Amino acid sequence: MAAVINPTSLAEVVQVTRPLLLARDRMVPVLPALSGLMPDGGLPRGAMVGVGLGAGSGADAHAGATSVALALAAGPSAAGSWVAVVGRPDLGLAAAAEVGVDLDRLALVAEPAPEGWAAVVAALIGAVDVVLVAPHHPVRMADARRLAARARERGTVLIQVGAGGTGGRGRSTRAGGSAGLELDLRLTVVAAEWQGVGSGHGYLQARRLTVEAGGRRRAARPRRAELWVPDLQGRVTACDPGRNTAYAGSDIDRLVPPLQEVS
Q1: Left (φ > 0), alpha (ψ -120 to 50) or beta: where does 27 sit?
Q2: Are 185 and 159 in contact (CB under 8 A)?
Q3: Higher pLDDT among residues 237 and 175, named by residue
Q4: CATH 3.40.50.970 correct for 23-255
Q5: 7-21, 212-226, 243-257: which is most confident
Q6: DSSP three-state, residue 73
Q7: Angle at CA 178, nearest 5°, toward 106 and 144?
């Protein structure tokens, strides 16, 4: 039988009716470099997040979108959450570890058949805190709505790699087919540039990404950030306009003449 409570003051009413979870408890932490792209500095539990490419973005941005998705998962992973990745056989574990994902709490799930994809994702929602998906087939609207409702109920963040378009629903992009998921937050990699290669020599050391954020409700206000993914130390950090953290060349750039095109 439920207990009957008769509050006698406003303070007691507040104490009785306040939510069990505070706002900060309903947020999934993200890396500090990404917090400026989030409306409340973190990912709301149950949110549907898309990471895709901007129109006219180069080939480097394709891999950059995957790196940003992994960086989103790195914050919860570092805080002790489990992360599941569905259908990315090309995912590099070294790259995931480099951005901060704890491989001891990372589950890799093979790409399910299209008719069973929604059931597999639904089973993971609630079992782990973050599910990263990259479906190569359109997802039925009914399935997308059921996944969104289940994610909100269970508090799992669903991240779709390859989400594009300007509306709430994912659309077809170069990173994969339309998923049909209604996105609360959308991150778009609009530019990518590698640093470290000199005039005919050197090696890739750091990648600078320009990421724009938008979405629905509190995420509707556009945001933009310049990120190193990774920086010279292999971390995900925000670009500091007042500090040159990229490759600035070496003495060999002045000793070796640039390569000349010959006919």
Answers
A1: beta
A2: no
A3: 237
A4: no
A5: 212-226
A6: helix
A7: 70
Reading the block at residue 144, the tokens are: 């997308």
Which tens digits make up the pLDDT trace of 222-258?
Answer: 999 999 988 888 889 998 754 444 444 444 444 444 4
Q: How far apart are CA 180 and CA 133, in angstroms?
A: 12
Statement: the pTM of the whole predicted model exceeds 0.85: no
Encoded tokens for 179: 């998923």
Q: Which residue, 23, 10, 13, 33, is CA-closest to 240?
A: 33
Determine how many CB atoms are found less than 10 A away from the CB of residue 202.
15
Q: Indicate whether 80 pLDDT > 90.
A: yes
Closest alpha carbon to 147 in 159, 136, 137: 159
Q: Which tokens go with 250?
A: 């070496």
Which residues fall within 8 angstroms of residue 25, CB to CB, at 6 or more apart? Answer: none
Q: Is the CB of residue 75 less than 8 Å from the CB of residue 29?
A: yes
